[in-house]
Inverse folding.
């Protein structure tokens, strides 16, 4: 009788562990899906940002790049590197490095010919 009770307890514990594992996987999938939706929202927003009221440059001068920065605005007296962020998003490590290089004026012009 005691072996039967122990066997049932072990089976119940295994079932509970499997259920916990499945719930954990579902939570991970939902979290990933939410993050993916946020990224898609941000990507759509990037295309519209130059037409918004608080954009202080001429939208006709903006050229979309997408990655690793959103784009460039070719103004009369300067070229502005732009990265649009929504919500609580932050610069990636690569974007931080690009920002640092720009601030240190580590920028070059090269003309490449095909001959």
């Amino acid at each position: 009788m005691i072996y039967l009770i122990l066997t049932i307890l072990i089976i119940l514990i295994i079932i509970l562990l499997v259920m916990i594992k499945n719930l954990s996987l579902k939570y991970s999938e939902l979290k990933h899906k939410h993050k993916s939706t946020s990224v898609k929202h941000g990507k759509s927003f990037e295309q519209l940002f130059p037409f918004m009221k608080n954009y202080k440059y001429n939208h006709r001068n903006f050229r979309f790049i997408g990655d690793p920065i959103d784009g460039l605005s070719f103004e009369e007296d300067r070229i502005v590197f732009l990265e649009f962020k929504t919500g609580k998003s932050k610069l990636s490590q690569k974007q931080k490095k690009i920002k640092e290089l720009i601030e240190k004026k580590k920028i070059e012009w090269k003309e490449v010919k095909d001959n």
